[in-house]
Specification:
Layout lengths: L21 E3 L5 E5 L9 E2 L6 E2 L4 E4 L8 E2 L4 E10 L5 E9 L22 H10 L12 H5 L9 E5 L9 H8 L1 H15 L4 E6 L3 H11 L5 E6 L8 H9 L14 E5 H13 L5 E7 L7 E6 L4 H7 L7 E6 L6 E2 L13 E6 H4 L12 H5 L6 H9 L3 H6 L10 H5 L6 H21 L1
Parallel strand pairs: 1-14, 9-10, 9-12, 10-11, 13-17
Antiparallel strand pairs: 2-8, 3-5, 4-7, 5-6, 7-8, 13-14, 15-16, 15-17
Helix pairs in contact: 1-4, 3-5, 4-7, 11-14
């Protein structure tokens, strides 16, 4: 069974919502749509207080090269453009809209009819993906049109579709593969056309046998698309780990997958690309998992961007009494929410509720030099060293030890018997080193 070789861990899967079909969450009375919803520059608003908007209408432009357009997820009136709390508790600019009905832009095809015939050219596909605000839905939210613009001197050879969903608890991608399989396969063909490749590999871990069987059967109708079962191993959903598992190619330190002829897109992204190119639908809603062992009704919802997370939790029966922590994302890479009233964004894959026992950190002790963190690091780094360098504010040394290669999977912190907050320090170090690199480029 295929997998990556270096490092990795096996946390409990806890896919307790995997058999829950996608439900459409009712539209809230108000949405807060953040302007910074992609890995890159925030978008610039083109609406103002008092403007009437429709569902799917462009409300903010991604003017920088690495940025994305934002569209209204509802119809109604713009209440204000103001700073609101994001999922980390920071005040960020957002467009606040009071909802009135649900009037969509007329040019969006709202039918369920599958459109398999791809008439758009390569350039038209990239333009449409850009205009309709498609970003990576695996979590990073990197603008998808940028990935499709292969740099001069590089050549895409294979498209990899990430259906791994290795993060414990999360099941949104699993449900998309079961319920929207044909749409994501057409989306895969669209991405293949945009990249000029004739081969696509869909990687799915073998804890999703129903998705593997379903997509394997349907993919026979789509030339050039292969489904590959993978051994369950975290963090196989990382781009570099998935490329190694499927192609045995290794992406060199400090470079991107295109360096080895690969482009990776998430299954949710492939679905969004289908809807954009074939249905003219912007990315204003996505599938989100709401889960936790104590929650009454763990679910997978189709949610409008900007919906308060508290509304998703209420739809699942509310916050259980013993809840100690609410996490945006999964338990390995997710981050604790400061407030459940923060909005769902394009990169929101799940919301996880932990009780006190699950969320309690191990008491920190002295490092015993066991090297467990080094053994499980899928990037071949020394987490204990670079976290210590960050702690000592030795950022240049941290950079020399490849801190920027860290994919923040959390395998080191998960494994550490001394309860060291390794990932916390490494994340801080990456932020500081990133600032140094950017400032160096300005001089």
């Amino acid at each position: 069974m295929k997998t990556f070789k270096l490092g990795g861990v096996h946390p409990a899967e806890n896919k307790i919502s995997e058999n829950k079909a996608i439900e459409v969450l009712p539209i809230p009375k108000q949405v807060q749509i953040p302007l910074g919803q992609n890995l890159g520059a925030p978008s610039v608003p083109i609406v103002k207080k008092g403007d009437e908007v429709k569902t799917g209408q462009l409300i903010a432009k991604g003017e920088a090269f690495i940025s994305s357009n934002i569209h209204s997820s509802v119809s109604g009136k713009v209440l204000k453009i103001d700073n609101v709390n994001d999922q980390s508790g920071y005040k960020r600019p957002a467009i606040v809209i009071n909802v009135a009905g649900d009037e969509w832009e007329e040019n969006i095809d709202r039918t369920d009819t599958l459109k398999k015939n791809i008439t758009a050219s390569k350039n038209e596909i990239i333009k449409k993906v850009h205009e309709l605000g498609i970003v990576g839905l695996g979590g990073a939210a990197f603008p998808s049109h940028v990935k499709l613009m292969v740099p001069k001197g590089k050549k895409a050879e294979v498209l990899i579709i990430n259906g791994v969903e290795c993060e414990p608890y999360l099941t949104a991608d699993h449900r998309v593969m079961l319920e929207k399989a044909n749409e994501l396969l057409v989306g895969t063909k669209i991405l293949m056309k945009a990249l000029g490749v004739n081969k696509a590999l869909i990687g799915i871990e073998n804890n999703k046998p129903d998705a593997i069987e379903h997509l394997s059967k349907l993919s026979k109708e789509y030339e050039g698309i292969e489904v590959h079962p993978l051994k369950v191993k975290y963090p196989q959903g990382g781009e570099k780990q998935l490329i190694k598992a499927l192609t045995n190619r290794e992406v060199p330190s400090g470079t991107l997958p295109i360096e080895v002829g690969c482009v990776v897109q998430n299954v949710g992204t492939a679905l969004a690309v289908y809807e954009a190119v074939q249905k003219n639908k912007p990315l204003f809603e996505r599938v989100v998992t709401i889960t936790g062992k104590a929650i009454k009704n763990p679910s997978n919802f189709l949610v409008r961007i900007g919906t308060p997370i508290s509304e998703l939790i209420e739809a699942c029966g509310g916050i259980p009494d013993k809840t100690s922590k609410i996490i945006g994302g999964g338990p390995m890479m997710g981050k604790s929410l400061v407030t459940p009233d923060a909005p769902i964004v394009k990169g929101s894959s799940g919301v996880l509720l932990f009780d006190e026992k699950e969320s309690k950190r191990v008491e920190e002790k002295a490092c015993i030099r066991c090297a467990s963190c080094i053994k499980v690091c899928p990037m071949g780094l020394e987490p204990v060293l670079i976290s210590q360098l960050t702690k000592l504010e030795m950022y240049e040394e941290a950079e020399k030890n490849n801190i920027m290669d860290c994919i923040e999977c959390g395998s080191c912190q998960y494994t550490c018997p001394s309860g060291k907050p390794l990932l916390d320090y490494i994340r801080l170090g990456k932020f500081k080193v990133g600032q140094i690199i950017r400032n160096r480029g300005k001089n």
